Amino acid sequence: MNGSAQPAPAQAAAGPTGPTVSGTAVPGAGLSGVTANGAGVSGAGVSGAGPSSAGVSGVPAGALPPQSASGVPVPQGPGASAPQGPGVPPSGPGAPVPPAPGAPLPSASAASPASGASGVTGGTGVSGVRFDRPSEPDEYALQAPDPRVAAEAAVVVETAQVCVACRAGRVDDDGYCENCGHAQPRERDHMELESGPLAAVSDRGLRHHRNEDAFGLGRTALPDGSPALVAIVCDGVSSATRPDDASLAASKTARESLLAALPQGTHPQQAMHEAIVAASYAVNALADEPATAREHAPHQNAPACTLVGSIVTPGLLVVGWVGDSRAYWVPADRSSPPARLTEDDSWAAQMVAAGLMSEAEAYADERAHAITGWLGADAYELEPHTASFKPDRPGVVVVCTDGLWNYAEAAEEMAEILPPDASARPLHSARVLVGHALDGGGHDNVTVAVVPFPAPAQGAGSA
Fold it and tell me: What is the pTM of this model?
């Protein structure tokens, strides 16, 4: 089987028509006992290496066709043609036709010379060749693509986020570009919202790794049909646990509380007080953690944030706050003086109120921004502050965190950087104010809402 020479038997049986020829075995032709279509063929050792050695051991010498010098059978008869290459069976009118798939093969003794009954085909010893394999096509038809799969792939491509740096790569699930590796900004890093006549912008700033501020805007109608505008701004306390969750929960809860209470006839100032209390409960609920979490991180404190909000109606302006986020009044007529509408819950404000330090001295102290009031489970005591005003002229209410007013602390400074057309272009004005803080250093998160006063009539309706 490995092509090595096999010794011929000393005495070969003579065939019915002539003697056998023995000699050197053809390499690779020493196959004995091989079955073809279940019929055993014995004594198939090929002998004779040259053209004169045409006999096969156990096969009459006259049963084989004439062969060329290379051992290839020479076709005989009219119309016969030579094979095209080694190992190619003869073709032509006299060539044998392979049996149909599934038909029984002829026995070895009845095989024609061209079929290689002795295992010699094109000079290669191959025995037991089968012709009952089904024919195979030259090409296989591909299955048509499933249109549902193609549609799903198109949706994935359309909804994939594109990198903000290279504008070419797709952003993977962990927030990095697959093309350039650039980390993508998170959703809260920069937020903008315009709701009719009021708008708000929040930015992470230039030094913080995340944005811990949040805001909520809304429009509704009072029972008499007059419009009411609502703006809430919250600043997460960075020294507390999960400050971003605290600000988001407080702003969302306070907004929903106001939009639910005002249409029912609740006085705006009372509605603001109730909204701050509801926001406090929402932040307190964040402190309810499993005991195992406290065991693994016993140093963590309760989530906390500050809150400032405003309600604007056609004739009334209401503000409410806890902490050091502020609200400013800037009249449309800049010849009239602006005003700050809130008082900080901070160490500096307490020093000024007690007459112990001037405002300039207090805010220059490193303890100035230490807050004395906030929303959270570990707050000393919740004391919501509310105030109502009735301005006699149109203007704008600026509701912001300390990330902005640190760069425009006095009301006059805030009025100076606020664009004159703030009532008509609230979103543009909010962007200008945030840009001012970023140009100043952006050391903190910056959030501001711009609300025109009085509330325009087209602001009626729920939002």
Answer: 0.62
